[in-house]
Amino acid sequence: MVAQQMSINRGRVRWQCRRALLELDLVFTRFLEQHFDRLSDDQLADLDDLLRADDYDIWAMVNGSKACEVDRWKEMIGLLSQGQPAG
């Protein structure tokens, strides 16, 4: 039961990674391919919390134009920054 509940939670979080802002959607697509399946439960909770932020705020943190002020999000922002489109 707990495993099933976790998989539903992962599925919901994965779905919420789809973003309206194209640049951010591309970053999340790469993130999902490279990192999502290896996230711990704590990392998943941090990502879930981050996904409640506005797309433009997330994008600003990912591209470095705004500092991430929430300690819980810093690891996820770092992983997302690795998937930034070039140029």
Describe the structure.
This protein has 87 residues and is an all-alpha fold. It has one domain (2-81): Flavinator of succinate dehydrogenase (DNA polymerase, domain 1, Orthogonal Bundle), CATH 1.10.150.250. Helix content is 63%, strand content 0%. The chain contains five helices and no strands. Helix 4 (55-63) packs across helix 5 (74-81). The radius of gyration is 13 Å and the shape is globular. The N and C termini lie far apart (45 Å). Mean pLDDT is 88; it is low at 1-8.
Strand and helix map with partners:
Blueprint: H1 2-16, H2 22-34, H3 41-50, H4 55-63, H5 74-81
CATH superfamily: Flavinator of succinate dehydrogenase
CATH class: Mainly Alpha
The helix content, as a percent range, equals 55-70%
Mean pLDDT: 88
The main sheet comes to: none
How many H/I helical runs? Answer: 5
Examine the coordinates and then state which fold CATH places here, giving the name of the CATH topology: DNA polymerase, domain 1
Number of DSSP strands?
0
Taken in chain order, the helices and strands follow as: HHHHH
- CATH architecture assignment: Orthogonal Bundle
Radius of gyration: 13 Å
**Beta strand %:** under 5%
Distance between the termini: 45 Å
Tally of domains: 1
Q: What would you call the shape? A: globular
Q: Would you identify the regions where 5 or more consecutive residues have pLDDT less than 50?
A: 1-8
Structural class: mainly alpha
